Amino acid sequence: MSYAHIIGYPLNRPRSVTLWKKFFKKNKIKCKMTAKEVRSKNLRLVLKEFKNDRDFVASAVTMPYKQKVTKYFDFGDKISKFSNSINLIVKVNSRKIIGYNTDVLGAIETVKKLKKKNIMIFGLGGTGKAILKVFSKIYRSSKFIVVSSRNHKEFSNKKNIKQKSSILDRDLIKIDLFINCSPLGSNLKKEFLNKSPLSSKQILLLKKNVNIFDLIYKPLNTKLSKICKKHKRRYINGIKMNTFQADKALSIIKKSVQFN
Questions:
Q1: Secondary structure (DSSP) of 194-245
Q2: Number of alpha carbons in the 13 Å side-chain half-sphere of residue 60
Q3: Reduced to 3 states, what is the DSSP secondary structure of residue 163?
Q4: What is the pLDDT of residues 95-112, one digit of tens each?
Q5: What is the pTM of this model?
Q6: pLDDT-based confidence at 13, cuts 50/70/90?
Q7: How far is CA 161 from CA 47, 104, 135, 157, 180, in A?
């Protein structure tokens, strides 16, 4: 039997397990899908085991390894290379594993019909950085304000990107699209659950027609979603992005893998 996994640390009932199992069952593919919590010190060994395991076919990759795994694998397409981040690895033959970033494809799909002249991205972890790298390439006429506690030198010389350490009121007034790439509001940790990247006061500074795209999909009703509902600002959670990226990942696997 073939095996597929999702790796990360910590893992809290990842949605990919259910989606991948349904796909394998629907397509009558004999492949077992499991969640594997991997400590950072064991990452290299686990990836080596995947390469040597004749029954391994693919793995989703989640926090905190989306950038760390890039040094072990080639990229499968231009978007993934632009992102310099991997959330899917696929064993295309007995000796080679290829990496992809379907997260970014899901983000592109989510915002494709939205106004994007002025974009604010809150949080530059693995996914946030990947989205910024790709969006700044494909939406060249857009202006980006990035809010992160750290200064990221790779973006310092980009004319259309401004880095800030906190959200400023004068910036919020201009924003067409706000993207939360931080874990605030998620159930990854208890201390995140009752937090929001934007306060009620800040929400009121945003345009009436602003779009707030929150990558979080667990729980569905975050503090941010409740604030947006209260003040009638459009809120989009991460379900569409997560579903699209999973469908794309499974499509890549189906085309690339020879199942045992």
A1: T--SS-HHHHHHS-TT-EEEE---SSSS-HHHHHHHHTT-EEE-SHHHHHHH
A2: 28
A3: strand
A4: 899 999 999 999 999 999
A5: 0.90
A6: confident
A7: 35, 18, 11, 8, 16
DSSP for residue 63: T
Strand pairing report for 56-61 and 88-91: antiparallel
Q: What are the distances in angstroms from CA 259 to CA 7, 13, 30, 58, 125?
A: 20, 25, 8, 10, 34
Amino acid in the structure at residue 179: I
At position 233, the amino acid (one-letter code) is R
Question: Residue 66 carries which side chain, given as an amino acid letter?
Answer: K
d(CA 242, CA 66): 15
Extract the runs of DSSP E, i.e. beta strands, from 13-101: 31-37, 56-61, 74-75, 88-91, 97-100
- Asked whether the CA dihedral 211, 212, 213, 218 is positive or negative, the reply is negative
Query: Which two tokens mark 171?
Result: 């910036």
> By CB neighbour count within 10 A (0-12 exposed, 13-18 middle, 19+ buried), where does 100 fall?
buried
What six digits make up the tokens of 197? 């990247």
